[in-house]
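Archive record:
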Amino acid sequence: MMKQGWCVLTLCLAVLWITPSLTAQTPTVSLKGQVLDPSGAVIPGATVILRGASGKPVSVKADALGQYAFEGLKPGSYTLLAGAKGFAAYRVESLDLSASKTLDIHLEVALEAQEVTVSDITNQVSVSPDSNAGALVLRGSDLDMLSDDPDQLAEDLQALAGPAAGPNGGQIFIDGFSGGKLPPKSSIREIRINQNPFSAEYDRLGFGRIEIFTKPGTDKFRGQFFSMFSDNALNARNPFVAEKPPFQSRFFGGTLSGPVTKKSSFSFDMERRGIDENAVINATILDQNLLPTPYQKAVVTPETRMTLSPRFDYAINDKNTLVVRYMHSRTDNRNQGIGGFSLDSRAYDVRDRDHSIQITETNVLSTRTINETRFQFLRSNTVQTGDNTVPTIQVLDAFTGGGAQIGRTSNEQNRWEFQNLTTHTRGTHAIKFGGRIRGSSLSDFSPQNYGGTYTFAGGPAPLLDSNLKPVLGPDGAPVLVEISSLERFRRTELLRSLGYSGAQIRALGGGPSQYTVAAGNPLAKVDQVDVGVFALDDWRLRPNFTFSYGLRYETQTNISDYKDFAPRISFAWGVGKGSAKKTVIRGGFGTFFDRVADSLTLQAIRFNGVNQQQYVVANPDFYPLAPPVTDLHARQAPQAIRKVDASLQAPRIYQTAIGVERQLPRNTTLAVNYVFSRGAHMLRTRNINAPLADGSYPLGSPGVLYLYESSGSMRQNQLITNFNSRINPRISLFGFYALGSAKGDTDGAGTLPANSYDLRSEWGPTAMDVRHRVFIGGSITTFGGLSLSPFFTASSGAPFNIITGLDNNHDSVFNDRPAFATDPNAPGVVNTRWGLFKLNPGPGDTIIPRNYARGPAHYSLNLRLSRTWGFGSRGESGPSPDWRPMGGPGGGPGGGRHGGGPPMMMGGGRGHGGPGGIFGGGSTDKRFNLTLSMSVRNLLNTVNLSTPVGNLSSPLFGESLSLAGGFGPMGGSPAANRRIDLQLRLSF
């Protein structure tokens, strides 16, 4: 009874406390409704702006159901403005909001080029699942900061994807399809990164997903032609080359787009590039007197590339739209395979031919249901030609000479992909379901290593006097010292020139450490199919709270893992007063699988010991004249066989994220996310027939059995801060800072443990364990029409492995790790700046962790400057939105309002629309626009060094022998440390 009395008293006090505050509040009204197209279908992502008497606009975006809402408004008269790309602007003057009102907005399809711009529109946070503030949307002038070079463009995108992309980096989707090559930059309409990370629609990690959408046809004939040029006279010298090597890049192309009929349009892109790139050799060899000498040389590696990409958009009727896109690329490279330790003799040529076709049909089944069907077919043929008649000589981390061991290799791939997606809106639910099936057929003809490879490693050897005699110790035994791989090779060549036999050379510390050779049938084929189906529901429980949940199921052939269920859940909660919430709290969890590549099955088929044989001979005495393969077979020389574990499972990552998004003053949004990822069943390779401690072999006889297995694990913690600031129509900046830590015991299928029977010692930093990453980019238009597009990246050092360069455990892999040491004067101890290490660990010694050391930090600033001049009559060009045919329900892949495309935006919105037009490069209101630009890669000429040599038996241990490679996150390139490209572009 007393307890009930307390409850009543508490309730009365609460009412008395709340009532005065309620009566003191000013009455407010609300405005809500849906944004619809002419057929009655919803338009997600449409921008709705409400301007009151104060003149300051309030902007919201329609959610996945096309719903918008303004709450907490003062009664009065307002101006309502709404729009989406491809639709005519909607405007209502003197809208009376003396009371709350519901108003549905019906947008009409726009045939003429229209653009609605509100100069003081704000970036706003939203509870829509696909409007997370941590996402990055690039279009228009923001694309200018990215490289036009397709290889460098891929590096830039991976840098933008950030550190949460998982072990395999960000996955790129092109118009909703996976596995394709990057389209020409001139045909890219929009790039979206890290959007809706926990959607069940996607197989791979949402943090790190890169979506590229190409341009559809336009309502009038429009186009551009460009030419880009760079020469070594403009560039800064690579510091690892004494003189500037010859370099020149010639790049030109164009785009033409326009109507075909009233219901169809086309676009066509063409690019051709010729570039005289360089490979820089930085090795240590022996001169004619067998003395170690540095060998530095830049070799021209010519490349030509041509890409053709037509696209056709057709509105079949009022309900159906068809999009067909074809892409053909031809690439020819010469002098590949050299650079670093690889000498000139290792060069080979590559010819690549690729074809792809994408077909997308969009069907509006009803006012609330839309279905999208996609099909893609990819065909590629790669031919590599090199010399495999001469054995390769590999002196570990000193130089690699001899033949290329490529022979004439050909790789033919046919890949296809079919998708069907359905979106249905029902009340407060946006339901989406569908599936994807992919297939591949791979035929690989590879006489790799048919000429054989000799490997020289460091290790203990007798100390020799001036007469090449072993120095004896007090006990009468030869004194042993640690020699480098190059010293072992030097002794081999010296003693061989003096007529010593193979056995004598080995007794004096010479001779190769291993000989490998392949033989048999060079042809191997594999087919693979994988399937993924999903269903999801974005449920708007309240106007300020969205709960999303879904389930995905995947499976594939070539492995026996058929239980890959991937649940996904997420929420977005808007906190604060009024209709436009300034704070959104997001969270989510999801399971993500990585499909096991068909290349692993191909290698297992090839090196099964029957189809093709790979012999491994330890400490051979027959250098340099190898016996015929038939002799190795007759004496049952040990083979290296590869096999896929029968219980192998698809790698999976369990990812959890929680974050806060906040709308700040000056059109700025800030997002802070904590992301935890746990990887299970990660892939590695292990020699399961490595000799045991007693010298016996598990399989009974010597030989190598490399088993692809899924026994690895990984843990990653990250704190990622994103900002997005559209300060005014002239300045747009965005970027992120990430603090992270990643630990694991494998870095992928190619990782071999130092000890096949002690995987616990493999736990350590992974290749992803870069503690600090920073990116800042944007678009700035200065007075006088000069546009600047900066692209700044910085990162702390990546981990790398310190190894002895020896094979003390006789598992055929020279990746043994040293032990920690305390006495610098003890035998076999090496003193480095990373600590004291013992090359030959004993039973009680502690082995250092994998990836124990850290490489150098990197930072790079890229900058594009451009200026546009307009001429010709007015009003016939200028910025143009994406166009879709009259009556069409959507814009095909990437353009649909319900399917795989991004939400339509107006006037740039959160997407950094900027001043650039549909073809980028800036535009004016004149018919023709001429843009002159200069792109500078690594503006500050920063010398970003590569990972140091981690082999303690190398004469170059601890040294960085090249630039980090790539201008995106690293900076630097083989040809130049700073590169300048000049470009001229004509748009109409």
